[in-house]
Design brief:
Elements lengths: L1 H21 L8 E11 L6 E8 L9 E8 L2 H9 L5 E3 L5 E4 L1 H6 L2 H8 L9 E5 L3 H4 L11 H14 L8 H9 L6 E8 L2 E11 L2 E7 H11 L5 E8 L7 E2 L10 E19 L4 E15 L2 E2 L4 H29 L6 H8 L7 H7 L4 E13 L4
Parallel strand pairs: 1-4, 1-5, 5-6, 6-7, 13-15
Antiparallel strand pairs: 1-2, 2-3, 7-8, 8-9, 10-12, 11-14, 12-13
Helix pairs in contact: 8-9
């Protein structure tokens, strides 16, 4: 028995060594690691102009970052042509961000994502984003903080915004899942350059894979409230101070406006549900529960009393409903259901084989009733 076991172990080691010797070794110092790709439509050749951000793990060079511009009809051709301009072997193993320029995003980005999806070396957790200018210009921004290169900075920029619940996540996997799911359209961050530094300034609403509209940073809060959920969110709201006249005391020599009450709420947690009330008349009901903590007020209001606290909760509920109505109507105008009303409709009409085109035709006509429930559980020091 022992002899048989020893022979088995020896045989397994022999096979492992043999297989290992067949693999082509990659020396990391000889590789150009791609951290980001930018894609633009070339108006003259109709090819794709690619911007490739590389990083080299080589202690003997001072500038470990490199940007290469190459063109091609396919993703693989762009990488192959970039290889001709580099002394390093270009590999995609650390690709973290894909950015599409305005022309491509307005024509459809799925053909490029479909090609990349077939590449086993590319992670489906990379971020998909859209630029409001050619990616060649955007990725030339030289201020990328302490990041080794612009590609790593772009990934950190988007990931930080997602983790702090400022925007909706848009990984490759999440984009493709929304694209293939009937009744739910993808969203992507919109990137711009300000003072030679890239920043997120909006989110894009996609109809399938085509950019058809945008939501501002202020509007994103309400879009996320309906599409996703908050765990530790934050929002600032402006209210009419006249509604709180009986509860507030004027600060001495306060230069701020006497007309507005600015309220900052953090530790926001929320839950939203969408229900179909009538499939024939396209009636929906949205229920949203939200609670949080007031950490700052621009006017002196005593929230220890239940009356002003209840008044503030009611005002927040009113503002949320008003903004949701405006944002959903905005998405209906461009035919992008980024909230998933179509998913619930499809579930309620099983057996009818609803298509994305059919839902995009129905979506502008849906009717929505909102039920908003806000609870301020705790509040900090009034400042």
């Amino acid at each position: 028995m022992r002899k048989t076991n020893c022979l088995g172990i020896i045989f397994s080691l022999f096979i492992l060594i043999t297989l290992s010797s067949c693999l082509e070794p990659n020396i990391i110092e000889e590789l150009g690691i791609v951290t980001a790709y930018g894609f633009d439509q070339n108006p003259d050749t109709q090819e794709i102009d690619g911007t490739v951000v590389l990083y080299q793990f080589n202690p003997d060079i001072t500038d470990a970052s490199q940007i290469i511009h190459s063109s091609g009809a396919t993703f693989d051709t762009i990488r192959a042509n970039a290889n001709k301009q580099s002394g390093y072997q270009i590999v995609n193993g650390q690709l973290q961000t894909l950015i599409f320029g305005p022309t491509i995003s307005e024509e459809g980005i799925f053909p490029y994502l479909d090609t990349i999806e077939r590449n086993a070396a590319v992670s489906d957790m990379l971020y998909v984003a859209v630029a409001d200018q050619p990616t060649r210009d955007l990725m030339s921004a030289s201020n990328y903080e302490e990041a080794p290169n612009i590609g790593i900075y772009l990934h950190r920029l988007i990931e930080t915004a997602v983790k702090s619940e400022v925007i909706v996540s848009s990984t490759f996997h999440e984009f493709m899942r929304s694209y293939f799911r009937v009744g739910l359209d993808p969203v992507v961050p919109i990137l711009t350059v300000e003072d030679n530094k890239v920043e997120v300034n909006a989110i894009g609403m996609m109809q399938n894979d085509v950019l058809v509209g945008t939501l501002s940073m202020d509007e994103i809060f309400y879009a996320r409230l309906l599409r996703d959920r908050f765990k530790e969110g934050r929002v600032e709201m402006t209210m009419d101070l006249d509604n709180f006249n009986q509860y507030f005391t004027q600060y001495v020599n306060d230069p701020r406006s006497d007309d507005d009450l600015n309220v900052v709420i953090d530790q926001l947690s929320s839950r939203a549900s969408i229900n179909v009330e009538d499939t024939d008349s396209l009636d929906f009901e949205v229920d949203i529960k939200l609670n949080g903590r007031v950490i700052e007020l621009s006017q002196r209001i005593n929230l220890d009393e239940p009356s002003p606290l209840k008044k503030m909760e009611s005002e927040i509920e009113r503002q949320i409903e008003e903004n949701l109505i405006q944002i959903v109507e905005k998405s209906q105008e461009v035919g992008a259901d980024i909230f998933g009303f179509g998913v619930q409709y499809n579930n309620a009409t099983r057996g009818q084989s609803l298509t994305s085109d059919e839902w995009h035709g129905l979506f502008p006509d849906i009717n929505i009733n909102y039920n908003i429930d806000v609870e301020i559980k705790r509040f900090g020091i009034v400042q």
